[in-house]
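Complex record, two chains
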Amino acid sequence: VQADGTDGNCVTFVLHDEDHTLGNSLRYMVMKNPDVEFCGYCITHPSESKINFRIQTRGGLPAVEPLRKGLNDLMGVCQHVLNTFEVRLFLRSLGDFSISW
Amino acid sequence: PLAAAAMAAKRRTDEMRDRVVLGEFGVRNVHTTDFPGNYPGYEDAWDQRRFEEAFRVDIIREEEGALEFDMVGIDAAIANAFRRILLAEVPTMAVEKVFVYNNTSIVQDEILAHRLGLIPIRADPRLFEYRNQGDEEGTEIDTLQFQLKIKCRRNPQAAKESSDPNELYFNHKVYSKHMTWVPLGNQTDLFPDADFRPVHDDILIALLRPGQEIDVLMHCVKGVGKDHAKFSPVATASYRLLPDITLLHPIEDEAAEMLQKCFSPGVIEIQNIKGKKVARVANARLDTFSREVFRHEGLKNLVRLARVRNHYIFSVESTGILPPDVLVSEAIKILMGKCQRFLNELDSVPME
């Protein structure tokens, strides 16, 4: 991870060894944050696996905060998806009761 | 009138927000637009509780090596992330190095090595570590050793005039069942009940004739599909969005029959109401959206073809190394691991 930008509000992070898999999902989670004015990512060159991830916030919030919140939110989403999926598998293995959710 | 116009406007924004509409010449409303600030009056900021209430997973079909399940309430970015991880970043074990001691068969060394690498190996990759960079030897914790030693002989008891190779020769077809596991170091103690072998016994590797022999030693390592496609644990992993077909006007009689033919079987059913045949959408899920409706002038404007934006029908087929439900769980854990890695870096590196 490297960061450089003008002031604390607009920062471009360079994430190494990453591609659209994390880039797009993280971009979605950070965009859902109402404090973020701009969020985008791009792959600098398809031969190198690194992405430029840019966050601009409105107001005085340092740009690292939406990134941290986005990562935490994405962890939360994954955890919930995993739990729901495993519960569903378990219920299915118990037998074919028609459980209406 | 004013209320009706407001209702129509709300319906249009709702459609823009949660349907991807297939027009005659293109697809509209493709991108996700429900970010905070785009739609006044809608609460779009991320709320974990609202997400958890709306999210659900339904398992439709679970077969020998394939799993079909629905994820409702999630966005394209995250669903695609799961698909990409299933294809490229769930690790497996596959043959990486082939030490050729003797190969007098017609198959060249490198072709044979390539074919051996593509054979799926039934070994749980979670029991092994990745090999360190630059480590040529391989230790017990990161390598599985297999041996393939086979020689073709002529069958002395074959009939004089027979031309069937199955009768004339022994061992003329080299199958994957001829690969045997050679335990390294203390692997017999580490894995007492393990039975490491290829997933399928009947993969044809090479053909031999009398006097030809193959004697190779193979090292399997743990890797990911990003490195080489032989490490990919899924035959394929794909998703599609749930189709949503709406009939804008009632369609009757002959038009109804034609409409039923335009869609996949089972999608449109014809009901007999008061003697007239009326078309009704029975099960939109089965449709493959060939857009045949748009070829008929009379039916073009009576139907709206769309997809529900946040309902994903996943289909995961495994090569047999790990069952598909385990693969999906592993993929989700890998995405969590990636986030955790960056969170740790954020916390450890001081930001100026």
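Note: Chain A has two helices and four strands.
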